[in-house]
Design a protein that fits this description.
The chain is mainly β and 286 residues long. 13% of the residues lie in helices and 39% in strands. 25% of the residues are buried. It comes from Flagellimonas sediminis.
């Protein structure tokens, strides 16, 4: 199915024109049962080589009450192999007027692992914003590049219970001729438009209502629209790989990444023992 022309144009111009983020422009249907409304959730992925992928994200969320704060999700993970080239957040009041602009230097830079970085150098740039009043809107732009193409980011058109969505766009393009496969779930039920070509795909959804959380509900992504994409030739932390099915991908991970990783040489064992020597005794010291 090909996307209507107007959706393609909107997607292309997504980053070029500011929108009206006044709360008064949100339809009543999207406010019902919602703690937050995603005004825009747009992800564009470009693969230019087996070991080069750029991901651009543009996200706008209107938070209606305190319970909606957790749905802002203005953060970006990074490490040696993930380079952030652009990150910015803008805060708007209920009338859609800009009240604050947060640049990269103003984001909180902290370990992505609770309790420190003893076993990981992964970090996260995190927006820490305390609202003065509700509702408010946060626009978040993030772009990063990585040589790791083994795991293309998944995309969810609805993110969680009690969160509605005005517009969600996903674009994936391969400029280097590598074949890819995709798996779309629950598109028909939510009228998600999908357009595929030999070198990529685009999909879009509009006006998805919030879903109330009920007892014994299934996992959220089992019945809401989402899409997964995978390359047949890829790269991960210095290792090239190839897989045409999800089963082949699992076999590659096991044989190339996991086998032998539980076998440590004596030098490594000695270093670990030196790092943790005496640590286990601390809680019992008086």
């Amino acid at each position: 199915m090909r996307l209507p022309t107007f959706i393609v144009v909107l997607f292309t111009l997504n980053f070029c024109f500011s929108q009206n983020y006044s709360v008064s422009t949100i339809s009543k249907e999207l406010l019902d049962n919602a703690d937050a409304v995603v005004r825009l959730n747009s992800t564009s992925i470009l693969v230019t080589a087996r070991d080069q992928m750029t991901v651009s994200e543009h996200r706008v969320v209107t938070v209606l009450n305190e319970k909606g704060d957790k749905h802002v999700q203005a953060y970006a993970f990074y490490e040696k192999s993930y380079k952030i080239s652009n990150i910015l957040a803008i805060v708007y009041n209920a009338q859609g007027e800009e009240i604050k602009r947060i640049k990269k230097k103003d984001f909180l830079d902290q370990s992505a692992i609770d309790g420190g970085t003893l076993y990981s150098d992964s970090r996260v740039l995190l927006l820490k914003y305390t609202p003065v009043q509700y509702p408010y809107t946060i626009e978040f732009v993030n772009e990063y590049s990585t040589p790791n193409t083994a795991f293309v980011p998944n995309f969810n058109f609805l993110e969680n219970y009690r969160v509605s969505s005005e517009r969600s766009d996903f674009s994936f393009k391969v400029d280097c001729g590598i074949p890819f496969r995709h798996k779309a779930a629950n598109f028909e039920e939510y009228q998600v438009e999908l357009s595929t070509e030999p070198n990529g795909l685009q999909c879009a959804a509009q006006n998805l209502k919030a879903i109330e959380n009920e007892p014994l509900s299934p996992m959220f992504n089992e019945f809401t629209p989402n899409i997964k994409v995978a390359l047949e030739s890829f790269h991960l932390e210095g290792v090239d790989g190839a897989a045409k099915t999800w089963e082949e991908l699992g076999q590659w991970m096991y044989h190339e990444l996991l086998v032998g990783q539980d076998e440590l040489n004596q030098e490594t064992i000695a270093k670990v023992k030196a790092l943790v020597r005496g640590v286990w005794m601390i809680p019992w010291k008086k």
